[in-house]
Amino acid sequence: GSSAVTNVAVTPGGTFSLSEANYTASAPLYAFTSLACSGAADTSTSLSSPAITVQSGENVTCTFTNSFVGGVLTLTKQVVGGSAAPTEWDLYMQGGGVPNGYRSGMTGDAMITGVYVASGSNISIGEYATGRGTNTSYSYTLAAISCSGNDSDGSDGVTLLVNETVTCTMVNTLGGLPGFTIGQTATQNPVTSTGTQTYSITIANTGAMALTGPTMTFDLALNGQTRTLASGPSLVSGDTDNDGQLDVAETWVYEATYVIEQTDLDAGGSFSSTVVFDTTETDSQSSLLSVAISQLPELSIDESASLTVDAGVPGQADTDDIATYTYTVSNSGNITIHDVIVRNSHNGYGPPPVPGSESGISTSNGSNDAAVDGSWDVLKPGDIISFSGQYTAVQSDIDYLQ
Asked: Potential cystine with 88: which of 83, 135, 159, 207 (Cβ 3.0-4.6 Å)?
């Protein structure tokens, strides 16, 4: 619109470079994005080196287009505890991306609300107490600076994206910062037997303020496969005044249970339990516990013998006497054993007994055998089976083993 760039007479046939400059505070907020010229036959609209050649009789107009590439930033205040009002603090934004480098004001002021700032530039944000109202009567701590945009943690400043609108809230708490610790234990660690496994989760308020709105999740898996809890997690102790909030110095204990099955022991590997606890005043924290399964395979065997055929003189060892051996096998370990067989190293001179004719003595834990073939198919922990075999005495036994 100025006379310096409007209806300017130029030498016909000359080529003229085109450019722009912005010396105002809004310069970082806009970028040169396009150039359009009308009335000229020869125009270069390259953004890096635009130029135009004006011939005799041409009347040319070139329009520069600049696009907004900044963001919009608002600062607000939240106060937790006590009677201080959010307006008792001044909030500030500072940096090269801020108009004139610095702005401040209390929450709601136009100076810090909907401010156009440069994108891609880190902007420092913070607060200071002004002495307005009652806040000087209390001890408040800046607990967090939470921002709504891509850069959510404003404690180290905030950086906006192009055309991003962001609100950063500074949260002050009365009496200090909130905080808690979390941990968990299991009754069996490592796991060696079936039955109820109890997980105890301990939450201790280590901060300086009560924590409200407590929530907990508990996920259990074995070797990455989800397992379903029998109960919990449930609060079992710690809320001494039954107010539903984790008061300062209180320690809460939750419990969750899972019934360990024989299939879990047989699978082996490890249980992993993940607990996540959160409150209104804090970020969530998690605890991970890994509990290994200790597999202890073990069999015990007892052998007994009886004379079942007395072929000669009664009460005397004779050729063709038959002794029947009974082998009692117990699964005394903690995992299922498959394909159990018995072999007998015998010192007789005749063919040794071949243990077979397997049968169940106590199979209430689920042991089973599909066919009597000298091999017991599935022997569960605590179950007992038996095998039997016979030996027929030969003359060499009579001659040398008596």
From this structure: 135
Using the predicted structure, report yes or no on whether residue 137 has a pLDDT greater than 50. no
Q: What number is the average pLDDT over the span 71-77?
A: 96
Report the alpha-carbon distance of residue 193 to residue 348 in Å, rounded: 42
Beta bridge partners, 201, equal 184, 254
The span from the CA of 392 to the CA of 401, in Å, is: 14
Contact partners, residue 367, CB within 8 Å, separation at least 6? 331, 360, 376, 378, 379, 380, 383, 385
Residues 6 or more apart whose CB falls under 8 angstroms from that of 222 comprise: 264, 267, 269, 270, 271, 272
The C-alpha atoms of residue 276 and residue 230 are separated, in whole angstroms, by: 19
pLDDT at 401: 78
Sign of CA dihedral 139, 140, 142, 143: positive
217-238 per-position pLDDT tens digit: 999 999 999 999 999 999 999 9
Q: What is the largest CA-CA distance in the chain?
A: 146
CA atoms within 13 A on the CB side of 284: 10
How far is 199 from 182, CA to CA, in rounded Å? 13
- Regarding pTM above 0.85, the answer is no
Number of H helices, E strands in the chain: 2, 26
Mean pLDDT (the chain, rounded): 92
Residue 100 three-state SS: helix
- Residue 167: beta bridge partners? 74
Bridge partners of residue 183, in order along the sequence: 202
Residue 360 has a pLDDT of: 97
Q: What percent of the chain has pLDDT over 90?
A: 67
